[in-house]
What we know:
Helix 1 packs parallel to helix 14 and helix 14 runs parallel beside helix 16. This protein has 16 helices and 20 strands. The strands form five sheets. Strands 1, 2, 3, 4, 5, 6, 17 and 18 form an eight-stranded mixed beta sheet that branches. A five-stranded parallel beta sheet has the order 7-16-8-9-12, with helices on one face. Strands 13-14-15 form a three-stranded antiparallel beta sheet, with no helix packed on it. It has helices at 19-30, 47-50, 71-76, 86-99, 189-201, 225-233, 235-243, 263-276, 292-309, 313-319, 337-340, 386-389, 402-405, 439-459, 469-484, 515-527; strands at 10-15, 35-38, 106-107, 112-118, 123-128, 133-141, 163-166, 181-185, 204-209, 216-217, 333-334, 346-350, 356-360, 363-366, 369-372, 375-378, 393-395, 424-426, 462-467, 533-537. The protein folds into two domains: 10-148 and 383-537, FAD/NAD(P)-binding domain; 171-224 and 244-378, no CATH class. It binds ligand NA7. The site of ligand NA7 has 21 residues, from helix 5.
Amino acid sequence: MAEDDTTPDLDAVVVGAGFAGLYMLHRLRGLGMSALVLERAGGVGGTWYWNRYPGARCDSESYYYCYAFSQELEQEWEWTERYPRQPEIKRYLDHVTDRFDLRRDIRFDTSVESARYDEDTRSWSVTTAAGDVLRCRYLITAVGCLSAANVPDIPGLDTFAGQWHHTGQWPHEGVDVRGARVGIVGTGSTGIQAVPVLAADAAHLTVFQRTANYSIPARNGPLSAEESATYKASYDEIRAVQAGSTNGHPFVVSDESALDAAPERREAIYRQAWERGGLRFRASFRDLLADADANETASEFLRDRIREVVDDPETAEKLVPHDHGFATKRPPIDTHYFETYNQPHVRLVDVKATPIEEIVPAGVRTSEGVHELDHLVFATGFDAMTGPLLSFEITGAGGTALREAWAAGPRGYLGLGVSGFPNLFTITGPGSPSVLTNMPTSIEQHVDWIADCLGHLRERGVDRIEAEPDAEREWGEHVQEAAEATLLPRAASSWYLGANVPGKPRVFMPYAGGFARYTRTCTAVAEDGYRGFALEPARTRV
Ligand code: NA7
């Protein structure tokens, strides 16, 4: 019960029960704060609850795609593969939920419809789809960056006589494609994971590709007991490397320029990275994401690998990317993706050459005719970063909607707070490194910063915190400068820029200045009394 009409029911409401929401709840509990997590799904996991498509697997390696906050957890959990599959990550998050007794403060099947800040009480009123209203001092969004599915608006989709699914909303009971004619739209990380697995079951698979993509072999395999023991014994060093890294991964980017290396040596380095597999390929040289000529050496190496693997030269040429450099869009990793095109029942359709015109009951009609299908899979990505935050109505001080405040693109301070929206914290929000890093690492850094901040506010008798407009503007400029110092904004169709969603403002959203640098900035801001945030002491009631 509220003490009086200005005391909210809860210290915090957290939206989302994925990696971020679970750890946030744990930290709030540790502070002795009352908190509730609202989760639209029927279970924990976020991304790993929804993305159950064939082949769904993490591109980070299991030993570091996990929480670092508990050494006991690190030691007791056993990963089975180099890259964990979706069910294994979901199992891990269920284990964390139970181990830390989090479930009792999570309300499942609870969608947030709106959240409105009230200046008189300095609190948020959060309304759920069922009509419940919760009043809390702090609203913390843990909604993920890639949770609002992007289903292309192709005419005739509702007439399709077969089944269609987006990979991010895959049916829990699975989809039986054995002996069926399957089409898949999209060749990003998701499509590249799904294609070989769908091809194994389907009678015929048609891949509709808009943009050819680079991909590095994952070289997945079971984790041996020795490997597992070595990681467990080395966690202190592993975490230290992650903390000091550009991308939150436990590898260090080479300090050598690709352009200084003699061609044979460069080739040998790429070859070794290719054989080792995984996202670490991009750490081969320091300037792959900073210098177009350096990038071209990696891009060309990878184009040659595609030509080498794919038997049919015409298909190979369609699969070779020319319109963007390696890793300027999120680089996928794969298990036999390009090899799949050597199977006689797999066909590649370049929809730039022969565009999709409409969907008809029998399948997909491109400018060259109808591709008959029983199943259509959309691996077409997400309305990234801003989509999840704008999927419910957030109204700040003075009645401003976040949707209006972000009409020209997202703005925020450190990706953590938004001016005009007091007492709101956005875990991995736009302007934070998030999607350019190993997500659990970024999430833990944000959650720890927010929890420490809340502890500080309580100690000082503060009950209102808001990002200052100047600090926000300067941070926004810095985010754009950091992006401009890389090749990332040059990939015109990248979802980092919002370019994959028609009508979305083109603003480079994640912070490309590096995880370690970002962490140092956040720490300095906190040490400086939360510089750039306006803190207001609780009003004395008379
Ligand atoms: P991505 O990386 O956004 O990839 C989506 C793919 O779908 C990409 O190839 C798009 O082509 C394609 N796409 C999107 N809309 C269309 C339409 N209308 N027609 C044809 N093709 C289309 O999403 P993913 O799910 O693969 O990966 C998201 C992240 O999840 C990933 O980066 C990891 O962090 C995990 P485009 O390139 O835009 O031409």
